[in-house]
Each structure stands twice: as C-alpha cells, then as structure tokens.
TrEMBL record:
Record's keyword annotation contains Signal: yes
GO CC list: extracellular matrix
Protein name: Auxin-binding protein ABP19b
Signal peptide: 1-18
InterPro entries named among the record's database cross-references: Cupin_1, RmlC-like_jellyroll, RmlC_Cupin_sf
Domain Cupin type-1: 59-105
Record has tRNA processing as a keyword: no
The entry's keywords: Signal
Annotated gene: 11418283
C-alpha cells in the first residue's frame, strides 16, 4: 500500500511541475542592471555565437611593483558564463615577481 501512495504522489507531482522555467543556458543580458541573483537572461532570439566565445585571456600587464598581471573572464565580459557560477583568471608573473598573501573567502579555488 505504501508503494501505491508513493507512486501516486510521484505521478501527481510530475504533472504539476512546469519545465518552462528551466533553461539549458542563460546568457547574461548586460543591457539591464545586475540583480542580487545575477543578470537576467537574454531573449533567445538575441543570443549569438559571440556570447559563447571569449578571446580576452591575454597576457596581463606586469609593469607594477609586484610584477604581477592578470586578466579575468567574468559574466560582464563573457555573457555565456551567466548562471554557471564560474569565472576564469589568467595570472602572469614576470621574473622576480610575487603574488602577495591574500584570501578568497567563500570561494572554491581549483588548482
């Protein structure tokens, strides 16, 4: 009898769940302001292949006291990352350079 109730509940919930709000991807619409939950999605008809291509991870400027330069790929310059919770950084350290002690609170750092 318990299995019957479980199957009945599963069938009931499978019919009331709407999959219209689930996106395969959510390209950031940078023309509207950022919200607490991130950028809203661009309308599908406005999405282009350029939203998923990023050529900005070039050598950073190391002409500073630390001889350290970095370039970042975030949602603001790579809209295809929106909703994925990821970003990328290229770090360039010149000869004799150093990275000062720092922390990343609340961030998972993969090396």
């Amino acid at each position: 009898m318990k299995i019957f109730h479980i199957l009945l509940l599963f069938t009931f919930f499978s019919f009331i769940v709407s999959y219209d709000s689930i996106n395969d991807f959510c390209v950031a619409d940078l023309k509207v302001p950022n919200t607490n939950s991130g950028y809203p999605c661009k309308p599908v008809e406005n999405i282009t292949s350029d939203d998923f291509v990023f050529h900005g991870l070039v050598a950073g400027n190391t002409n500073n006291s630390f001889k350290l330069g970095f370039t970042a790929a975030t949602v603001t310059n790579f809209p295809g990352l929106n909703g994925l919770g990821i970003s990328a950084v290229r770090v360039d350290i010149d000869e004799g350079g150093l990275s000062p002690m720092h922390t990343h609170p609340g961030i998972f750092l993969r090396r």
